[in-house]
Each structure stands twice: as structure tokens, then as C-alpha cells.
Design a protein that fits this description.
Blueprint (H helix, E strand, L loop, with lengths): L6 E4 L5 H12 L3 E6 L2 H13 L3 E6 L5 H15 L4 E4 L19 H26 L6 E5 L12 H21 L5 E7 L5 H9 L3 H9 L10 H12 L10 E4 L20
Parallel strand pairs: 1-2, 1-4, 2-3, 4-5, 5-6, 6-7
Amino acid sequence: MTIDGMRFVITGSGAGIGAGTAKLAASRGASVMVSDTNDANGQAVVDEILAAGGTAIYQHCDVTDEAQVEALMAAADSAFGGIDVLHNNAGIHESMISGELGLESMSRDSFEKVLGVNLIGVWLCAKYALPYLRSSDQASIINAGSTSSLSGYPQCQAYGASKGAVMQLTKMLAVDLAADGIRVNCYCPGSIHTEMVDKFLEAAPDPRAMLNTMTQTHLIPRMGQPVDVAELVCFLASPESQFVNGAVWTIDGGSLAWRGTLDVLGMEAQA
């Protein structure tokens, strides 16, 4: 895919899908702005990219802080001469804040914090990237949704609500930015092996049972890996996807293609 020379800003790219995308995009010739709130993790990703001969820099950014978001986009423009791709990847689950995940037990503060990162952060990043994206002839915004954008899951009230909103915001932005030549798309992963998923499993009453629940619906009988999603992000950023706009892409191992579990197919999920 021809992303050589393109300029990426990837939020929450110190780990997980964001880190996987940063490394893959850089390996294909893109210049990558890595951003995160964990400076050690973010710099480690940059160091790995540089050691492999790629181009990347790191900037601290809390996507709920408007001034930091504005500074992130300005830093990317200063370093790379513009922005072609905004990958709104930063996200949190309520289990990363508290073990209280039920309706009665979860605090309003936890609920609002998840929406702040997962939804308002996406909107803020799009807002402040817009002036730079308008100057690109291959501009796109790629938002991180989830299968919980499309379906219900236990113990995911704040996360699911935020990701459902991200899916719809993607469509609204695609409409509003079409005249600027900026494509806006969204991907919805199934269970991907990331630090956030590990935290979610740790918070479950029965982690093994929850892992089985998460993987038993995958027609590809394994947990997804960050690079699986990174491949899709690079495609959505590339000219090969130039006729794709306002789209919602599931990348879930077939999870939402049916209503069942692997045991009825005589299959067993791999941990």
C-alpha cells in the first residue's frame, strides 16, 4: 500500500493498536507522530521505529486537554510540514479506572472520563487537525470504534456508549468534511490482545470465562493482534481506499457475522 511519504498523527500510540500502527506505517515509509500520556512507552515506540530506519517523533498528549491537542497538531506540522492522516486511536475502558463496572456501582466521574477520552478526544483531535488536513491532497481521519459500537457486551456501559457515538461521529464528519476532500472512516475491532483488554480481563469475576466469551464467537479462533488492525488502518490511509468514505469496517474475526459460539462448530478457541 502506497503510504510512503505520508504524515501520520496517531493518538494513544504508546502501546496496543496505536503502537502497532505506528511501527507498520513507519516501516512503509510514513513519518509518524507518536503521542500518548505514558511518555516512557511512547518514546520506546519512537526509539524502535528509529532503530529500524523509520521516521518518528514523540509528543505527550492527553486528548481531553484542548491545549495539548492543539499543540500536538502544530508539532506534527512543524516536524513534517503537514498532516495527511489523523488516527484517533486513544481510548480507555472503565476497568482501567475502577473495578466498579455495574450501573449502580460505577461513578459518574468514571463514566464521564471514558466519554472524555473516547469521544470528546476524537472530536478535539479532528477539530485541531483540520487546518492541516485541508492542505493535504490525501487527507483522512481514521477513528477507533469497536464491536461494542454495534452490539452489547457485559460491563461495557461507558465504553460501548462512547464507541457507538464514535461510529456516528465518523459519519457526521465524513459529511461535513467531504467538501474539503477529507475522508473519514472508522474501524471496529473484536477482541484484540492489548493492555486494555488485559485490564478488562483482570477486572472480570472469572477472567478465564470472560476470555472464552470474548474468543468463542471468533470464526478465526484466536485473539486478534494489533498488527491485524494496523494493516486495515494503513489501507484506509492509502490511495487504494480513495473511494471509501464514511464507512464502518468490522475487523473482528467474524464475531458479528453470526449468533453463536465456536463449540457448536466443533471448534475450540485458542487463548
